[in-house]
Design goal:
By secondary structure, the chain is an alpha/beta fold. The chain is built from 16 helices and 15 strands. The structure holds N~2~-(3-carboxypropanoyl)-L-arginine.
């Protein structure tokens, strides 16, 4: 049966706060804070467990190998893995922090996915994102690609390598799909940023166009729309910080797009049943939207056909956002329930519930079962994380050889547990 599967990134044992993402306000403001990798991974798993309890299909992607000695070797460091790490840390602590980042947890940036119903050849297409605008993220794509080729090896899928780094591509975080139902043909909306503001625009229009071309999308049902400069300047480094779509519903901030009226008119023309739930700036400022991550929520269709939002707790704590949600629930719009989850460790690096998952519309029977989750597997993963993930990492700890040994062993234990 075709359904939406959420593949969450299992939060890796090197999760830390190194302030690597310029333009991501949470990442910058937590520079140097002590992280809790074990807590972070358990929070992520609790979210996955909650999604399962709602009757949704849930998968996972694995943390990448960090510290990334393969990358450091390409930069001239030599010797054993520990020698490579020690030399890199001594020579260039910032570079070494980039090699240590657990940023692959944010799988909304792993790839852009076009379901089979939209693609010319009837296959589900995944284009691995190059993430070339941030050094620590630009090193994810080779391992991400290897993993996606395993998970989606079935002929129902086509996995494409990252496009050339010249054009920044940040994956599904800048892509939305509006459709009557997940398995039906949809309108794909690619959102890009224009340079010239105070922060980098991470998604390039030509990257989006290349992905659409490679996926064989119908140009008449594909839209390319610009993010508003005001949203990027307020810290919306990806479109999914100010908008999210699910089936026929687009949930967005009034200032998310450069031309919101044009987008709404195009959607109404292409999919007459579309419903736009727009939050006015008068109710929630862009600053509050970015601080609370209201739109970085998972908008999901439950088995009874109704829609619910899975939001970060920070949305509940933000007074104007909570007030707006209460008014929304009292009305008769398409979103009928809200649930708050604790993903604080990820949030402090700018990653909310939606950043942590990659949506793939497919038949779960065509996915490598090692990447799919059930309650029993979550139990086993929780025990493994409790036993192997570091409790805390301060930025000063990244140079500690005992930490490298612990995190490599933790990942090896994870791969063995999952049968890799
Ligand atoms: O790319 N943060 C990530 C957060 C990604 C969120 N994803 C989506 N919006 N879909 C980023 O900026 C911070 C890492 C650090 O500073 O240590 C970081 O990479």
């Amino acid at each position: 049966m075709i359904r939406e599967i959420n593949f969450d990134g299992l939060i890796g044992p090197t999760h830390n706060y190194a302030a690597l993402s310029f333009g991501n306000l949470a990442s910058a403001s937590n520079a140097g804070a002590e992280s809790r990798p074990r807590e972070a991974a358990l929070q992520g798993l609790a979210k996955m467990r909650f999604a399962l309890s709602l009757g949704l299909a849930q998968g996972l992607l694995l943390p990448l190998e960090r510290p990334n000695t393969r990358w450091l070797r390409t930069l001239g460091f030599t010797g054993s893995d520990a020698e490579v790490c020690a030399a890199a840390h001594d020579d260039d602590p910032k570079l070494f922090a980039q090699a240590c980042s657990a940023s692959s947890m944010w799988t909304a940036n792993a790839a852009t996915v076009s379901p089979a119903a939209d693609a010319g050849d009837g296959r589900t297409h995944l284009s691995v994102a190059n993430l070339s605008r941030m050094t620590h993220r630009s090193i994810e794509h080779p391992e991400t690609e290897a993993q996606l080729r395993l998970a989606f090896a079935h002929p129902a899928f086509a996995v494409h390598s990252a496009i050339p780094a010249t054009f920044g591509d940040e994956g599904a975080a800048n892509h939305m799909r509006i459709t009557a139902a997940h398995g039906e043909p949809g309108v794909e909306v690619f959102v890009y940023g224009e340079e010239g503001g105070r922060f980098p625009a991470r998604q390039n229009r030509r990257a989006s166009q290349a992905v659409a071309r490679r996926h064989g999308l119908d140009p008449a049902r594909t839209l390319f729309v610009a993010q508003s400069g005001a949203a990027i300047d307020a810290g919306a480094f990806h479109n999914d910080v100010v908008a999210v779509a699910n089936e026929n519903v687009l949930f967005a901030h009034e200032l998310a797009f450069a031309d919101a009226d044009g987008l709404k008119a195009d959607l109404a023309r292409l999919l007459p049943g579309v419903q736009v739930v727009e939050v006015p700036v008068a109710a929630v400022s862009l600053d509050d939207a970015v601080r609370s991550y209201l739109f970085n929520s998972q908008l999901v269709t439950l088995p009874d056909g109704s829609m619910a939002l899975i939001l970060p707790r920070e949305s509940e704590a933000c007074v104007p956002v909570k007030a707006w949600l209460d008014v929304m629930l009292a009305g008769n719009g398409p979103i009928r329930a809200v649930h708050f989850v604790d993903v604080r460790e990820s949030m402090r690096n700018g990653g909310g519930p939606a950043c942590l998952r990659l949506r793939v519309v497919a038949d779960p029977a065509t996915v490598d079962v090692r990447f799919l989750l059930d309650e029993a597997k979550i139990d086993r993963l929780e025990a493994l994380i409790a036993a192997n993930w570091p409790d805390r990492i301060g930025v000063g700890d990244l140079g500690n050889p005992a930490l490298w040994a612990q995190v490599w062993a933790a990942r090896t234990a994870l791969l063995a547990e999952l049968g890799f």
